[in-house]
Amino acid sequence: MKKEIRICGFGGQGVILAGFIIGKAACVFSDFNAVQSQSYGPEARGGAARSEVIISDEKIGYPRPTGVDLYVAMAQEAFDTYRSDVRDDTVIIIDPDLVPKHDIGRPLYKVQVQKIAEELGNKIVTNIAMVGAMTGIYDLLDKEAVKKAVIDSVPKRFTDLNINAFEKGYEAGKNARPE
Amino acid sequence: MKYERDPERIRRVLGDKVQFIQGDMAVTYGAVLAGCSFFGGYPITPASEVAEGAARLFPRVKATFIQMEDEIGSIGAVIGAAWSGAKAMTATSGPGFSLMMENYGYAIMTETPCVIANVQRTGPSTGQPTLGAQGDMMQARWGSHGDMEAIALAPSTVQESMDMTIESFNLSEKYRHPVCLMTDGEVGHLREKIVIPDEDEMELVERVPATIDKEQFIPFTDSQTQEGSKVPDFPTFGTGYRTYVTGLTHNEKGFPATDKPPDHQRLIKRIVSKITDDREALTNVEKIELDDAEIAFVTFGASARPAESAVRMARKKGMKVGMLRMKLVWPFPRKVVHDLSKKVNTIIVPEMNLGQMVHPITEYAAKDCEIISAPKVGGEMHLPDELFEILEGV
């Protein structure tokens, strides 16, 4: 088993943290191997950013994705920029509010993760809501493992907020159907 | 400056035994575990996270972090700290490594144990700061003027970034020689799982201190207390052992002997042969699928990763392909490469440069073994498919 995941958005949204959490859930709180790599522009905010995770039950040689099994986008520019190597069977998850132009002639999962975060009172946890949605939609990692990785990776004083975002995102992901 | 390495404090500060961290941070972890008590550095992409980690962790283990004014100052401070008894290191990338070359030679000449982590990026000059490369392999070997030997390791994974940092300190202490940890922007920025070794899972080497009667002490000669060792006992500053430290050719007492050929010959032959005498013992390679291989990749560092993927692809198709990975690149593992070249028909050398390690490989390979250089520059790793295509063309 080897799964390649790309999470993209704009700089400052926390896509790298999202990839980091997925990688940590896979190899610290589950029994997989994982590598996470990233690429981003020099800007602290804005610009397309991406985080890539490979999860495997075997040793991982080449550490960058050669195809994408799961493609997650949280910004229009990133969705357009990093979509070139998705395959027909790639699972795609987007936030339709952040990626309004997503009609690419095939079904994809739409989860309003930013709205979830805003309803919890802080847009900053949009990425964690997306981690929850990914966990709910893509049947790979155990929910509890990802939750542990979230708790382990966010500032202690924001644990509750992040866990709420994760849970709501997970729930929304579980209920989502490709459309 | 006597540093008391406190294993319990170190483990408390480093945290969980299993973590998911970046290669650069793993270098910092390795330094802390090794008992490094001084980090002098200047931030530079893609090595900045090593210094950032040291700035965060070193004070918490009662070690010293100092951000110097530049890379020349950094390695100067490291050399000074080493003479005061510290295990000391710096971390940099291409442009900083170039600036350090003069003092690199000074550390070799004065037999100063220290570690230089070079998180390689493309060059020459400022090149591509955020992208990985392996273009400084020859600089580690020959970057200083004059005759020298080098000790350099090349990690392929985050785990190895930590383990090989510990090993770098061990070798620098053992041989009283600067050791280059030749990592790169690719491995340095990758996050992977690491397992932090417990105290009984690590071997730490300390330099042999001068203990002989002070009147009889000779600072730059074969060890006076260890039979057969060409590495002098170390007279830590402040312990009362009179030592004159200079980059000029010096006699055994340490005083300049700039017009005496025999003194230069004796000094340089000793500081080179203290390493080359141990070439076989130092050789550290990983062999993958080599038993029946007819074609072999000879690799190191990041480029070993796509090469290993290509080996797996080839094996699935029944091709007899293997890989030799040099964990320690300098001193060059002549014998193991030569022996391999007599067994296989073809050696392929993928590197993230225009062809550097292919030169010693060609020099020490049997003459009837075909050597194919597979260079790639531009800041990208080889794709497994690219290497597989080369295999198919053999």
Determine Rg of chain A (CA atoms, Å). Answer: 15 Å
The CATH architecture name of chain A reads: 3-Layer(aba) Sandwich
The CATH superfamily name of chain A is Pyruvate-ferredoxin oxidoreductase, PFOR, domain III
Can you name the CATH architecture of the largest domain in chain B?
A: 3-Layer(aba) Sandwich
Largest interface, chains and sizes:
A-B, 18 and 20 residues
CATH class descriptor of chain A: Alpha Beta
CATH topology of chain A: Pyruvate-ferredoxin Oxidoreductase, domain 3
Terminus-to-terminus distance of chain A: 27 Å
The major β-sheet of chain B equals: 8 strands, mixed
3D architecture notes:
- The complex is a heterodimer of chains A (179) and B (394).
- With 179 residues, chain A is of the alpha/beta class.
- Chain A has helices at 15-27, 76-81, 113-119, 126-137, 143-153, 159-175, and strands spanning 2-10, 33-39, 48-56, 68-73, 86-94, 109-110.
- Chain A has a single domain, classed as Pyruvate-ferredoxin Oxidoreductase, domain 3 (3-Layer(aba) Sandwich).
- Chain A has a six-stranded mixed beta sheet with strand order 2-3-1-4-5-6.
- The longest helix of chain A has 17 residues, at 159-175.
- Chain A starts with a strand and ends with a helix.
- Chain B has 394 residues and is α/β, with parallel strands linked by helices.
- Chain B has two domains: 7-201, Rossmann fold, CATH 3.40.50; 285-393, 3-Layer(aba) Sandwich (Rossmann fold).
- Chain B has helices spanning 7-14, 23-34, 48-57, 71-83, 94-109, 137-142, 158-175, 185-189, 261-276, 279-282, 304-316, 334-343, 358-364, 384-393, and strands at 18-22, 38-41, 64-67, 88-92, 114-122, 128-132, 151-153, 178-184, 191-195, 285-288, 295-299, 321-326, 328-330, 346-351, 370-375.
- The A-B interface holds A 20, 23-24, 27-28, 33-38, 59-64, 66 and B 16, 18-20, 186, 189-193, 305-309, 312, 381, 383-385.
